[in-house]
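Customer escalation, tier 2.

The customer says the design service returned an amino acid string that "doesn't look like it belongs to this structure." They asked us to rerun it and document both sides in this ticket. The original structure tokens are below, unchanged.
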């Protein structure tokens, strides 16, 4: 059996990251960097990072990254892409950023079918601020602000972003992956690559949701976080391509 040698993508810097042990952001960073390298678009790629743990991305990618106010990356990406239509523009957002304060921005960017790519990292909690309930926190999940578990009549239902956006005519590609095992990582990379290719081909709005580990926010060990995603979270957020026009 031929061994596969890992080669660091040129689109990622050779730095130690400051994410918590077991965090999935580092894996997602690498997948984005690998796709950028494979598509040979590093010199014209622009990332938009928000507030939250996702903001650290600009320290690690070896291409241009701009920061946006909390929840506003789709609006900033829209402006950048319209001014520089030959650039490949993507947002990198967490669930608190995209699905709470940024709900209006993501819905209207999708409705306009802005020709951008959205990488949506869903760990179901506010990771940077120690694990409060997020829009994607599932029913019964315990967080700092739902110590007895999320309840429907007090906290509402978890927000399914891909399913919500799927009924909007402007969305052209929606997929949900995970970074919990090698098979899921490979599939997630294929979704990311498809989303970037769609933008290159001017097809319109694409979003890839990625279920990711946040051991510190979930108050679980790294292994427990992976097991919880694979055994519980995917029941509510099924993996796969949601829409492909």
């Amino acid at each position: 059996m031929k061994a596969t040698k890992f080669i660091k993508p040129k689109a990622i810097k050779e730095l130690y990251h400051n994410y918590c042990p077991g965090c999935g952001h580092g894996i997602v960073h690498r997948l984005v960097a690998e796709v950028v390298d494979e598509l040979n678009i590093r010199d014209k790629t622009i990332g938009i990072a928000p507030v939250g743990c996702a903001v650290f991305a600009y320290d690690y990618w070896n291409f241009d990254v701009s920061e946006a106010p909390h929840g506003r990356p789709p609006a900033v990406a829209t402006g950048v892409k319209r001014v520089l239509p030959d650039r490949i523009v993507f947002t990198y957002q967490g669930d608190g950023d995209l699905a709470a304060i940024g709900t209006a921005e993501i819905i209207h960017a999708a409705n306009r079918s802005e020709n951008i790519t959205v990488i949506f990292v869903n760990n179901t909690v506010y990771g940077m601020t120690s694990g409060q309930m997020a829009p994607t926190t599932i029913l019964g999940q315990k967080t700092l602000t739902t110590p007895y578990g999320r309840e429907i009549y007090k906290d509402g239902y978890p927000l399914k972003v891909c399913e919500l956006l799927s009924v909007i005519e402007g969305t052209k590609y929606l997929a949900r992956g995970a970074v919990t095992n090698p098979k899921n990582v490979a599939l997630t990379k294929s979704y990311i690559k498809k989303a970037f290719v769609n933008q290159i081909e001017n097809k319109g709005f694409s979003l890839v949701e990625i279920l990711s580990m946040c051991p510190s926010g979930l108050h679980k060990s790294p292994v427990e976080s992976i097991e919880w995603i694979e055994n519980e979270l995917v029941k509510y957020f099924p993996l796969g391509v949601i829409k492909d026009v």
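Tier 2 assessment: The sequence is consistent with the input. The CA atoms of residues 59 and 243 lie 32 Å apart. Residues 182-200 form the longest helix (19 residues). Sent an explanation to the customer and offered a walkthrough call.
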